[in-house]
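Need DUF2062 domain-containing protein's 3D structure for a figure. Predict it.
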Amino acid sequence: MVFARRSHRPLTLRIKEFVWPSSGFKRAFAYLAKRVTSLKASPHSIAAGFASGAAASCFPLIGLHFLLSFGLAWCLRGSMVAAALGTAVGNPLTFPILFAAAYRVGAIIRGEEAANAGAVDQAGSELAAEEIFSGSLEHAWPLFTTTMIGATPIALATFAAFYLLVRWSAAKVQATRRERLASRALRGCSA
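Structure prediction for DUF2062 domain-containing protein:
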């Protein structure tokens, strides 16, 4: 590789950088936005791919987000690279917020009482590790299904928001790039 590191960073440092970037979140998000908008594809393809990844991250199916985003991007003729980058919306900092919101929305959709909708913290703390991993889904299944039901409208709203934002950004970046290349070509012809 041309730009490979001379000394490889240890796994623990790479994980730490993934969770809490030393360059700062603002720079990490700016880098991600630059990578997404500079992809060589149509604005629709980039936007559909990124929005697919972001929407897939709303579901409590950790480990399957890439597969979900690739499947959705394929159905919508979106960019697979953009879909992979879009899954960065779901990360260790946003998962608790997304899943708690999904549970609350799911509880409202299922018609559960408002008091029960706020019980996600209590239910999560009451589930002992032995119950979860023993194969008994008696307590975990209702929590999971409610969260899946609530994640669907959140994923749809997330898809719409990111699709519009990324499509507009990608179209703007590509138009600027075309103008810059055209002006360079004109300067080259006149010289």
